[in-house]
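Dear colleague,

As promised, here are the two records you asked about, laid out in our usual form so they can be pasted straight into your sheet.

NAME FIELD: protein one
SEQUENCE, THEN STRUCTURE:
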Amino acid sequence: MIQAFESPKHLLQRVARRVMPATQSTRHGILISLLNIPLPKHECGIFYSALIKQTAMATFANRSPQNVPGRYYVDDQCTDCDLCRELAPNNIRRHDEGGYAYVYRQPTTPEETAACEMGVWGCPTEAVGNDGDQ
C-alpha cells in the first residue's frame, strides 16, 4: 500500500524493489524497467503524481545554451552518461562537439512529459531540470 506521506524518491525506490530483482536494482535499470512494467491501476496515478512533483536540482542559470526555451533543460553538470537520452529520445539529444545532452524539443504529449520527468529523476548528476521558463 502506498502511503500519502512518502516522498517521490522513496516511492520510486519502493516500487522499483517490488518490480525488479535485487541484482538489477541499479538506478538506470530501475528507471528503464519502470517504463516497461505496468503498475497496478491504483498505484499508477499516485506514482505519476509523485513523479511530476519532483523538484529538480539542476540550475536553470547554468543550463546549456542549446536547450530550447521551456520547462525542461540540461545544465552544465551533464556527464554525457546517455541515460536521459535513452529515457526521452524524442526530446533530448547529445551535443557531439561539447559531449553533453540538451533538450532540443519540449514535450508535447503526456508520454513525452513522463519520459522527461524520468530523465529528471534518473540523472546521476541531477543535471536535468524541470523548473525552467514556462
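NAME FIELD: protein two
SEQUENCE, THEN STRUCTURE:
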Amino acid sequence: MKHLKKLTREEKKFLKAQGFSPKEFLMERKGFDSYTFFHKLTKKLITIRR
C-alpha cells in the first residue's frame, strides 16, 4: 500500500457525488481512469472509476 494522503477538493466533490462521506476516506492512489481510496473505519481499499 502506498502512502495515504488527505483528499483534495476535487476528490471530496467526487466522493460526495458517488454518495460517500469524504471524512471517512484517505487517498491511496490516483490512476489514469480510477481513484483508489482507503476507508478509515473498515480499513479497506475501494477503487472507483472516474
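A couple of things worth noting about protein two: The radius of gyration is 10 Å. The chain has one domain: 9-49.

Best,
R.
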